[in-house]
Amino acid sequence: IRDIKLKASQSEKMVQEICADIKKLDYAKTHLQTSITSLNRLQMLIHAVDQLELLAKDYQYREVANLFDAVKQFMFHFEKYSH
What we know:
Blueprint: H1 2-57, H2 61-78
Helix pairs in contact: 1-2
């Protein structure tokens, strides 16, 4: 009976360690996904600003206005990183 209790205790400890490791990996995955999303949005923001410059040079103000709304939305996403 002692051996069974000892093995059960060891198994429980091992399960707790595995669960702790899984939690760490889950947090890492969440942060990685957030980083990837932010980098994608940054890339889209840079592309949109480049397009704004080109459109403004060609006096295509209607397209500039539409694209400017998209740029504002991207900038809103990055506001939380500025503080």
